[in-house]
Hints:
With about 150 residues, the chain is mainly alpha-helical. It has helices at about 5-10, 30-45, 55-60, 65-75, 85-100, 100-105, 110-120, 125-130, 135-140, 145-150. It contains 10 helices and no strands.
Amino acid sequence: MANLSDLTSGRGGTQGRPVPLAAPAPWTPGLWLASVAALLAVTAAISGQSFWIDEVNTAWRLTEPRFAVFLTNMTAEAGSDAQMPLFLAVMWGWAKLFGLDEWTLRAINFVWILPGLWVFANGRAERLVVAATSAFLWYYLDEARPYGMQIGA
């Protein structure tokens, strides 16, 4: 296997030229259909069922109306929620814009999962459909916790 210095020095068959990246796949009708199917599948995965205990803890934190107090409370605690400040800060803004009900707090996972699915699929319709219908993905999409952010990243 050639390493980076082989590829740029001419020993890898490129005569010192950088190796070009593959062009993104063109938008075909199949890819459009797979994208719509993936969006519908991901939308169906998020429910309005009642919160479980960790989600209640997240929602409770988001009830603080002042961001400065929210940050002070978050940094004062030593629990596991203090280990995910980006998630909680984004959720605080999301809750102020869209509300605190179950479906709305879980819907933020769209923000993280959809770009992650697109990158994973790399322009291939079959990958997009398989990933979007994954039971593992559906399970974690239906939680108001940072799992969607972690999967999407």
